[in-house]
């Protein structure tokens, strides 16, 4: 299997970090923009798109700041995706930093998918 490539994307977003954290860390928040349906039982999250279910394990989280998941279907332990809330100390501008991994020939497609997801999040937040 090919090595996956790590990439990071930053999205400015007009919302409070506390509100954003609810949308990135809870099943109900994630259901609003990330997947059609999200369920969790402890550290196990089920994401459902078009009837297809993907499971991810909650690897770590820091309240109000970030959440990191690992797809169970991906057996390489070093691959994950993380959504981090960053606040500029001077301007107080809020951004979301997404870190993810993708096959080399799918990076652009994966980035477009994240752009669409974050666009949906902005619409839900009313900050589009």
TrEMBL record:
<protein>
    <recommendedName>
        <fullName>START-like domain-containing protein</fullName>
    </recommendedName>
</protein>
<feature type="domain" description="START-like">
    <location>
        <begin position="1"/>
        <end position="126"/>
    </location>
</feature>
<dbReference type="InterPro" id="IPR023393">
    <property type="entry name" value="START-like_dom_sf"/>
</dbReference>
<dbReference type="Pfam" id="PF19569">
    <property type="entry name" value="START_2"/>
</dbReference>
<dbReference type="InterPro" id="IPR045736">
    <property type="entry name" value="START_2"/>
</dbReference>
């Amino acid at each position: 299997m090919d090595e996956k490539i790590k990439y990071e994307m930053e999205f400015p977003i007009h919302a409070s970090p506390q509100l954003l954290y609810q949308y990135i860390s809870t099943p109900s928040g994630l259901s609003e923009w990330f997947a059609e349906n999200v369920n969790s039982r402890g550290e196990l999250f089920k994401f459902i798109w078009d009837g297809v279910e993907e499971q991810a394990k909650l690897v770590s989280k820091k309240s109000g700041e970030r959440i990191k998941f690992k797809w169970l279907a991906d057996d390489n332990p070093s691959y994950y995706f993380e959504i981090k809330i960053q606040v500029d100390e001077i301007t107080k501008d809020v951004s979301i930093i997404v870190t993810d991994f993708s096959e080399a020939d799918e990076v652009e497609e994966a980035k477009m998918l994240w752009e669409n997801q974050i666009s949906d999040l902005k619409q839900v937040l009313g900050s589009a």
